[in-house]
Design a protein that fits this description.
Blueprint (H helix, E strand, L loop, with lengths): L1 E7 L8 E7 L6 E11 L1 H7 L16 E8 L11 E4 L2 E3 L5 H4 L11 E2 L19 E5 L4 E2 L6 H4 L5 H11 L7 E5 L3 H12 L3 E6 L5 H6 L4 E4 L3 H6 L4 E6 L8 H4 L2 E9 L13 H4 L4 E4 L5 H14 L5 E4 L4 H9 L6 E5 L6
Parallel strand pairs: 10-11, 10-13, 11-12, 13-14, 14-15, 16-17
Antiparallel strand pairs: 1-2, 3-4, 3-8, 3-17, 4-5, 5-9, 6-7
Helix pairs in contact: 4-5, 4-10
This protein binds zinc ion (2 copies).
Length: 350
C-alpha cells in the first residue's frame, strides 16, 4: 500500500475536497500510473451527489484518465515504466462470461468493476477514480495512448469518445449513411467528429439556431432546429441513424419520424422513463429500431483512440485546476463548458 491524494466527496451534500488515502501496491497483473490528466464527466456529478442512488463514500470521481506508467507487476507483459496510458470507465470484470469473452466487458454478466465507487473484486475496497495523483489498474483495463496524441484532449475519448464511437461502429455507420446527432455537449460534439470521419453525412439536431455555426465548425454538414416544425418536417424519413446524446427526458416521437424505414435511434443517455410515451406506430409501421448503448469494451476503447489519432480527432477541452472542481460542476450543470473540463493533475501538487 502507498499513500495517494485526490479530491473526493464525503457525502452527497458536501463539495469535493482533498483527501489522502491508500492505493494498493501493484498485484502481478497490475500497472501503477501517475495521473497527468483526468476529464470531468457528467456521471461524476451524478455519482458525487448520489443522484443514481448507488454512491459509496468517500467518493472520488474520474474515469477519463491519462497518465504515465510508474511501476508494473511481475506478470505484466503489455506495459513498461514510462509508457503513456489511459484508463476509462472500468477497471475490472469477471473476464469469463459471454460478454467478457466477446470483449464487451461493459456488459459483464456479473457486473463490471467501475473505476470509482465499486467494490474491488479482490479485496472488496471501494474503487477510487482519477481525480487523484495515481491509480493502480489491471493491465487488461489499461489502454495505450497513441504516439503524438495530445494527452489532455485524449482523456475524454476514454468516456465521451468511446460512448459515441461504439454504437456508430456496432450499427455499421459508413460512407453514404445519413446520421443525425441529437445534442452538442461533450458526447454530441464527439459524435459529430466521429460520424464524419466514418464518412457519414452528419446533421446536428439542436434546440437553438445559434449553435448552427459552431456545429458546422465541428464538422456537421447540416443543422436542424428541433423546435422548428417546418425544419423537422423537411427531414421526415431522411436518416439511417440517430445518435441521441440528450441527457434529459425528451419526446422521441418527432425524431423517430425523421428516420427511414429500418432506421435506428440509439440512446446513450439514461432518460428513464421515456416520456412522453413512445408511439409504437413510429417503430412498427417503418420497422424502425430504438436501441441503447453503454460506453464500449476495452479493445474498442483502444480502437477509438487509434481511430482518433489516425483521423486527427480530439475532444475540445477547457483545462481546469483541481482546486476549481466544484465551480466546474456548477458550470457543467449550466451547460457552460466547451466541451469537456480536463483536470491538469499537476495542480494537485499546489
Ligand atoms: Zn463518463
Ligand atoms: Zn464478465
Amino acid at each position: 500500500m502507498y499513500t495517494a491524494i485526490g479530491y473526493a466527496a464525503q457525502s452527497a451534500t458536501t463539495p469535493l475536497a482533498p483527501m489522502t488515502f491508500q492505493r494498493r501496491s501493484p498485484r502481478a497483473d497490475d500497472v501503477a500510473i501517475e495521473i497527468l490528466y483526468c476529464g470531468v464527466c457528467h456521471s461524476d456529478i451524478h455519482q458525487a451527489r448520489n443522484e443514481w442512488g448507488i454512491a459509496v463514500y468517500p467518493l472520488m470521481p474520474g474515469h477519463e484518465i491519462v497518465g504515465k506508467v510508474t511501476a508494473v507487476g511481475h506478470a505484466v507483459s503489455r506495459y513498461q515504466v514510462g509508457d503513456l496510458v489511459g484508463v476509462g470507465c472500468m477497471v475490472d470484470s469477471c473476464r469469463h462470461c459471454e460478454a467478457c469473452a466477446a470483449d464487451l466487458e461493459q456488459y459483464c454478466l456479473e457486473g463490471p468493476t467501475m473505476t470509482y465507487a465499486t467494490p474491488d473484486r479482490v479485496d472488496g475496497s471501494n474503487t477510487m477514480g482519477g481525480y487523484s495523483n495515481s491509480i493502480v489498474v489491471n493491465q487488461h483495463f489499461v489502454v495505450r495512448i497513441p504516439t503524438g496524441m495530445d494527452l489532455a484532449s485524449a482523456a475524454p475519448i476514454l468516456c465521451a469518445g468511446i460512448t459515441t464511437y461504439s454504437p456508430l461502429k456496432h450499427h455499421g455507420v459508413k460512407a453514404g449513411h445519413k446520421v443525425g446527432i441529437l445534442g452538442m455537449g461533450g458526447l454530441g460534439h464527439m459524435g459529430i467528429k466521429l460520424a464524419k470521419a466514418m464518412g457519414a453525412e452528419v446533421t446536428l439536431f439542436t434546440r437553438s439556431a445559434s449553435k448552427a455555426e459552431e456545429a458546422r465548425r465541428q464538422g456537421a454538414d447540416h443543422v436542424v432546429v428541433s423546435t422548428d416544425a417546418e425544419q423537422m418536417a423537411a427531414v421526415a424519413g431522411h436518416f439511417d441513424f440517430l445518435l441521441d446524446t440528450i441527457p434529459v427526458q425528451h419526446d422521441l416521437n418527432p425524431y423517430l419520424e425523421t428516420l427511414k424505414f429500418d432506421g435506428v435511434h440509439i440512446l446513450v443517455g439514461l432518460i428513464e422513463p421515456v416520456e412522453p410515451p413512445l408511439h409504437a406506430a413510429n417503430l412498427v409501421l417503418k420497422r424502425r429500431v430504438l436501441a441503447g448503448s453503454l460506453i464500449g469494451g476495452i479493445a474498442q476503447t483502444q480502437e477509438v483512440l487509434d481511430f482518433c489519432a489516425e483521423h486527427g480527432i480530439s475532444c475540445d477541452i477547457e483545462m481546469l485546476d483541481i482546486q476549481h472542481i466544484n465551480e466546474a460542476y456548477s458550470r457543467m450543470i449550466a451547460g457552460d463548458v466547451k466541451y469537456r473540463f480536463v483536470i491538469d493533475m499537476a495542480t494537485l501538487k499546489a
